[in-house]
Amino acid sequence: MKTHPRKLLIVIAEAALERQLVADVKRLGAHGYTVIDVRGGGARGDRNADWDADRSIQMEVICDDAVAEAIAEHIHLTYFDDYAVTVFITEVGVLRPAKF
Known about the structure:
This protein is α+β, with helices and mostly antiparallel strands. The protein is about 25% helix and about 40% strand. The protein has 2 helices and 6 strands. It has a 4-stranded antiparallel beta sheet, covered by helices on one side. The chain is globular and about 45 Å long.
């Protein structure tokens, strides 16, 4: 089965940023996204989702290189200084390239 290379951009962020992040990724060229509620801990402490302000999300976007870079750069410049946000990009192979 032939796969087509794309990037998987993963953003882990405070749940309060979800609406803004959705608007950002759409504006920057993503065809779609998935958002999942997550828990974890790191340099800014534990996020156990015990109350609304303590919730985190994981947003996943499969896209081409240029869109992944644009989204990552925007998130870095806009959110990193003031919010608990992590971004990473990895290679994936997709079966329906037109969808991404």
